[in-house]
Amino acid sequence: MSENRYVPSINRYKDSVGYNRCGNSGLMLPKISLGLWHNFGDVDNQDEALNMLQFAFDHGITHFDLANNYGVPAGSAETNFGKILKSNFSSYRDEMIISTKAGHEMWPGPYGDWGSRKYLISSLHQSLKRMQLDYVDIFYSHRYDPNTPLEETMAALSDMVKQGKALYVGISKYPVDKAREAYRILRENGTPCLINQDRYSIFTREIEQDVLPLAGENGIGFIGFSPLSQGMLSDKYLHGIPENSRAAQSHGFLQQSRLTPEVIDKISKLNEIAAQRGQTLAQMAVAWCFHKPQVTSIIVGTSSVKQLQDNIDSLKNLNFSDEELWRIGELG
After folding, report:
1. For 197-207, how does the pLDDT look when each residue is reduced to its tens digit (9 = 90+)?
2. Helix, strand, coil % (nearest 5) of the chain?
3. What is the pTM of this model?
4. What is the b/e burial string over 245-268, where b = at least 16 CB atoms within 10 angstroms of the residue's CB?
5. Which domains does the chain have, with CATH numbers?
């Protein structure tokens, strides 16, 4: 049968990226998780998407991070992932952690955005249909909604667990005071928060002050995204802005205006530190995220198998001296 034509490596756990326990839960997550925000939509190369998913799984990357609005057009990343899952990974569903989220605009009108019970539950039903799944492993509230009672948002997450449509729940990008409240509500609902997801990189360190300590105090895992700060923490922009780079595009999160001479100088100095460590800047940037013990996993977004291999190779050197951490901190 065609769905069995892909046979994973028998060494996928022996030679894996390694795993960390997610907070105080029983769940282990791979140190590197594959994010499908970019490069898995209808506008992207489907053959390369398949190759990346197979390569990831062959190297013990068992966690695939999605959201309802991922891909161009929105939702297409889940649809394409679902097709690949059915045709290549149907025998291995129980070896995978699949997460999705709802919280950003997904469809027109008053019910397709933010954190109402109506939106979250409708969105998860749509996500399950797109991915051809009975359940997801982790369902996130993708952002805090200031206009919806937090009890309503958290109750929707809890009910999805109780109905068997999600095994665990998490939050993403919540202000620390609202995260604290969310943890309490979910715990009282009998569905403790498994994980908090937020932006984390050498250039984005605000969460070190309160988000990470709070997660640790509550026995909750943390997973970081954008460890390369939208590609700035790589050698891509050391000698100008390549035509096909994110910064060269008129839309998106990384604008050319952010790449000031001062920032380029910092990137250059960070690149020197990485070279002294025997790593590329991108590899050092990923490795650096693990210097905080609360970090369970880091989500990487890649456009090729080569990039994914480079990210995996970052795990070969996770040790930082105090001097290195100080020097990197001064440039962050």
Report:
1. 999 999 999 99
2. 45, 15, 40
3. 0.93
4. bbbeeeeeebeeeebeeeeeebbe
5. 2-231+292-318 (3.20.20.100)
